[in-house]
User: Fold this.
Amino acid sequence: MRINDWISRRCEGVAFSSEASRRAENAEHRSAATVECNDEAIQKPMLDCFALQTRNDVTSIPGAVLPTVLVVSALLALVVVAVVSLWEADFLYFSRHRHEAMQRAHIASGFTLYAEYPDKVAASLDADSTLLLYDSVRHSRIGIKRRSWGLYETVTVSGSDGRSHATKIFGLRTPYTDDYILWCAGRNSAVTLTGKTRLKGRVRMPRGGIIYGQMGPVFFDGEKIEAGMMTMGEREEKLPAPSVDALAAIGELKELAASAGDALPVADSIAHGFYEAESLLFSVGERLENLSLSGNIVVFAEEVNVDRSCRLRDVIIVAEKVRIEEGFAGSLQVFASDSLNVEAHVTLDYPSGLFSEKYIGLADSVTVNGYVIVNPDDKPDPKNANYRQARHARVRGLVYIAGSAQFQGIVSGVAMLAGVVYYSPRGYYENMIYDATVLENPETAWPIWLDDGPPERKEAKWVN
Assistant:
């Protein structure tokens, strides 16, 4: 009977803990050690009870758990989808970044290739102005477009996708084949150096050479030219001639005056990128003030005064007479058919340029970063100056005067002068340089002006 009771309690199993059941089981086994449990009638109820307990433990899941399971499953699915999406987004970002990096590299290669071999690159362009950098890389095709911009040129390089592009202003790497910092042409007369004149580089002088002399009571107090740094010129020495392309570019600018647009709006700001195919052309009156102009813009006038209130960047002014008033600062190229005067404390940022067919005057404390060129049609007349540079004016770049020049101040670059004259209240001194300094400057990009200059280009400015 004790065995049947034990089976009933085991099957009910509700009122006993697992620990109590183990104790009861051990006690029953000790008390019934001599009882045989091999009877089939006893074993069957036990097996049925165990099977029922196992089946209830596995299949009995409360209904309230199902919504929780569904929510957790949905969250897990969302997490998986988010991880996959982030991986794909990262892959797309990486691919896009790599594509843009390759486009920038191809554009940079285009600029480098053009700077080294401009003529070969221009000749190698396809009909659509494109060039394949690498035969094995289909996406390495770039577009190259160049155009004259005053006495510089703009070069636009675009990538194969059509969205990536850049524009730079280029000049010449060296102004001409020789390396003279001062080239004085003229007849066989000697050039007199006086005052605090310093020539720090190789010079080319007329066949008469140089004389360290005086101007009135002022004697030479500068630095003498080192031995081997001076070359004597030819008989009837002349300056290198300007290139045909440079003169043609200036002529095209003059012809554009006939197609100039409406008058420039007053108190306005206009920016026009060099990537645009056509320049903006405007006509102005006698005064240019309270304006902000930048980029691919050409301004035409008969006579114009540029006020210090103007903010001009990389524009071109074409007029008969131009005056840049005191205190102006900006970057521009000016082409005057008559006279061009720059008042005191004017700063023309790099790359700027001044060109006149008759006369240019630079007052004290003027800084020009670029070029100053006077190219008169008449022969130099010592009685009439074509160029005056004050003692405290500075030019970084090229000074080319195919006429009579009162040459003072500082030139960091190259000065090429057909005739030098010093004008004083008592008269003028022909073939004299007084208080002038000329220094070497290998860093600048030179205007595309001379005919015998090497073709290699140098970047002057990144504009787009």
